[in-house]
């Protein structure tokens, strides 16, 4: 198993859970996401991007980190370039850290959909800001370690078939859920959260820091 953390340019709130999540991982930084390295005690082994969101202060502070520089006019985001590099280096699990917030809602949405697309290919990914955490859902069975009271939502990216939720305030059994439905928004953990899905693609977004 080779766990990688990719530092992205969104928001990061340091928590014990986030520290545990990134512990022991190899670290790649995507452009300005390297700003999170210090507060998490991480040492990136590679810094990728077009460096259009990197300040002179960060340039100087992390001048020792090897870089791969891309032109600004490219057909991938810095985050996707870093994710592809992690898989090229043999990643079996990836944590997208700083995947939410920031000034670009389009990048946040891309991180959620990109992670789900990779999960559909059998890859394991988690997205986290420290205050929010997201887990792609494709056909399969999932168990989560969230504490009682943790708020969570499941957002469908496609029609879902056979969605079941156990260990929640509002459980579901073998439900069909259409794209755009709000039925599975704002639930709460009550016991051991267990989710299963027969077919479709979705993402579970939780707020573990307020449990």
From TrEMBL:
Domain Thiamin pyrophosphokinase thiamin-binding: 140-203
Keyword ATP-binding: yes
Primary enzyme class: transferase
Record GO biological process: thiamine diphosphate biosynthetic process; thiamine metabolic process
CDD domains (alphabetical): TPK
InterPro entries reported in the protein's UniProt record: Thi_PPkinase (IPR006282), Thiamin_PyroPKinase_B1-bd (IPR007373), TPK (IPR053149), TPK_B1-bd_sf (IPR036371), TPK_catalytic (IPR007371), TPK_catalytic_sf (IPR036759)
GO molecular function terms listed in the Swiss-Prot or TrEMBL record: ATP binding; kinase activity; thiamine binding; thiamine diphosphokinase activity
EC number: 2.7.6.2
Pfam family, one: TPK_catalytic
Keyword Transferase belongs to the record: yes
Keywords, sorted A to Z: ATP-binding, Kinase, Nucleotide-binding, Transferase
Top-level taxon of origin: Bacteria
The protein's name: Thiamine diphosphokinase
Organism this protein belongs to: Phyllobacterium sophorae
Species lineage: Bacteria, Pseudomonadati, Pseudomonadota, Alphaproteobacteria, Hyphomicrobiales
């Amino acid at each position: 198993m080779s766990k990688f953390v990719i530092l992205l340019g969104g928001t990061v709130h340091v928590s014990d859970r986030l520290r545990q999540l990134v512990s022991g991982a190899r670290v790649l930084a995507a452009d300005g996401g390297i700003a999170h390295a210090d507060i998490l005690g991480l040492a990136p082994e590679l810094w990728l991007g077009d460096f259009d969101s990197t300040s002179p202060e960060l340039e100087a502070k992390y001048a020792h980190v090897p870089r791969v520089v891309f032109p600004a006019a490219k057909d991938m985001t810095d985050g996707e370039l870093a994710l592809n590099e992690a898989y090229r280096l043999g990643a079996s699990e990836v944590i997208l850290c700083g995947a939410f917030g920031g000034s670009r809602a389009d990048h946040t949405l891309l991180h959620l959909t990109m992670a789900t697309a990779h999960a559909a290919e059998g890859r394991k990914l988690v997205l986290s800001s420290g205050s929010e955490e997201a887990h792609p859902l494709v056909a399969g069975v999932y168990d989560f370690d969230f504490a009682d009271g943790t708020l969570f939502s499941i957002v469908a990216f496609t029609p879902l078939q056979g969605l079941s939720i156990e260990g929640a305030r509002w459980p579901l059994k073998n439900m069909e859920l259409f794209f755009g439905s709000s039925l599975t928004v704002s639930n709460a953990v009550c016991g051991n959260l267990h989710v299963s899905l027969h077919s479709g693609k979705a993402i579970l977004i939780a707020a573990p820091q307020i449990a």
